[in-house]
């Protein structure tokens, strides 16, 4: 909970508009067949898989700033004398001398009231020392006022609200914490064990986890594709192969990037459509009625959830939460307001849902 590793990081990210109707499974397969490259569907993971998008998580010594109309994360500059006071406070905190720790944190904040770490540290000292949940909450909220995109500040605030007997407000803070850090381990530990603390339903996740090695790096003119042991990831893997290797698709990525939500949306949709087609074929083979409702009911849980999400116009929210946010948590802080709103709506409807 109390991490103090400074670094500077900048990431520009914007939700791209979907420029045209999505390409379908048959069209993607035709692109592979007509390509000058040689694509092979293999029964084993690629020997040299492509590197997947990853980036770090947010750190409490960073802040989000606006620059040239974009958001970026940079180090939060704090004067050395203030950091010294915070370090002294941390020594007292670790020794469980919470009153002395609080004195040091207050002294540092008196010099620099914008030193966001001091507010979080002071809140912890009050919460663990005097069991002063109200005082702790006030400190946490002062930190969040300086940067509302900090996931830990929202988690800390939720803890204070639980202690104050206000589970609904605690749940609101948890939604915000997950919006800015979908893979927040401390949040998921509580969510999986005790969602009742927030008056929330048990959490049902729908993770998006294609197999390792589903796409190989291009070796001269050859590309390996591994669709999974039962070809259950064929739609996604084929789409990813096309976007990674066919220039007219790769050119649609933002400048300086090899990933876009447009690509991810296209490939998730292709996974949905491809799985729907395979499920329909299986039902026909088994002599089962093939109407749309029957196919939908027979879909694997993930694809059935994706269809529901798409019909609710929250597919981008799912993608940002379960794909982009899990692999690149730091990037969530750079999302624009529209994207953040989609993630927030997805979480509220499908992840952290109020109990009946």
Keywords:
4 strands; Serine Threonine Protein Phosphatase 5, Tetratricopeptide repeat; two-stranded antiparallel ribbon; mainly alpha; disordered N terminus; 356 residues; two-stranded parallel ribbon; elongated; 53% helix
Overview of the molecule:
The protein has 2 domains: 25-57 and 207-351, no CATH class; 62-180, Serine Threonine Protein Phosphatase 5, Tetratricopeptide repeat (Alpha Horseshoe). By secondary structure, it is mainly alpha-helical. Helix 2 packs parallel to helix 4 (116-128), helix 3 (98-111) runs antiparallel to helix 4 (116-128) and helix 11 (261-285) packs across helix 14. The chain has 15 helices and 4 strands. It has helices at 25-34, 80-94, 98-111, 116-128, 133-146, 151-163, 167-180, 185-193, 234-245, 247-250, 261-285, 292-298, 301-311, 315-327, 337-351; strands at residues 38-41, 62-67, 70-75, 222-225.
Task: Please outline the helices and strands.
Blueprint: H1 25-34, E1 38-41, E2 62-67, E3 70-75, H2 80-94, H3 98-111, H4 116-128, H5 133-146, H6 151-163, H7 167-180, H8 185-193, E4 222-225, H9 234-245, H10 247-250, H11 261-285, H12 292-298, H13 301-311, H14 315-327, H15 337-351
Parallel strand pairs: 1-4
Antiparallel strand pairs: 2-3
């Amino acid at each position: 909970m109390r991490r103090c590793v400074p670094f500077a990081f900048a990431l520009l990210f914007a939700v791209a508009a979907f420029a045209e109707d999505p390409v379908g499974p048959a069209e993607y397969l035709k692109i592979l067949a007509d390509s000058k490259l040689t694509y092979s569907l293999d029964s084993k993971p690629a020997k040299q898989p492509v590197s997947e998008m990853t980036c770090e998580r947010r750190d409490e010594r960073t802040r989000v700033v606006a620059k040239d109309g974009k958001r970026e994360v940079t180090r939060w500059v704090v004067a050395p004398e203030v950091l010294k006071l915070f370090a002294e406070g941390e020594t007292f905190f670790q020794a469980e001398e919470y009153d002395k720790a609080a004195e040091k944190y207050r002294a540092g904040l008196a010099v620099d009231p914008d030193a966001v770490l001091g507010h979080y540290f002071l809140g912890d000292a009050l919460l663990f020392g005097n069991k002063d949940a109200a005082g702790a909450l006030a400190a946490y909220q002062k930190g969040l006022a300086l940067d509302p995109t900090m996931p830990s500040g929202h988690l800390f605030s939720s803890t204070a609200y639980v202690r104050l007997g206000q589970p609904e407000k605690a749940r609101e803070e948890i939604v915000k914490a997950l919006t800015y850090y979908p893979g927040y381990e401390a949040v998921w530990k509580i969510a999986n064990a005790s969602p009742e603390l927030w008056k929330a339903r048990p959490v049902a996740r729908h993770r998006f986890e294609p197999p390792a090695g589903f796409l190989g790096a291009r070796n001269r003119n050859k590309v390996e594709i591994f669709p999974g042991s039962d070809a259950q990831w064929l739609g996604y893997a084929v789409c990813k192969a096309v976007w990674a290797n066919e220039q007219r698709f790769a050119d649609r990525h933002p400048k300086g990037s090899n990933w876009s939500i447009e690509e991810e949306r296209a490939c998730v949709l292709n996974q949905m459509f491809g799985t729907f087609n395979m499920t329909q074929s299986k039902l026909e083979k088994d002599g089962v009625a093939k109407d749309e409702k029957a196919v939908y009911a027979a879909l694997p849980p993930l694809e059935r959830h994706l269809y529901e999400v798409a019909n609710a116009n929250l597919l981008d929210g799912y993608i940002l939460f379960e794909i982009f946010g899990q692999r690149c948590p730091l990037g969530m802080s750079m999302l624009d307001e529209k994207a953040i709103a989609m993630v927030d709506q997805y979480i509220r409807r499908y992840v952290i849902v109020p109990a009946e």
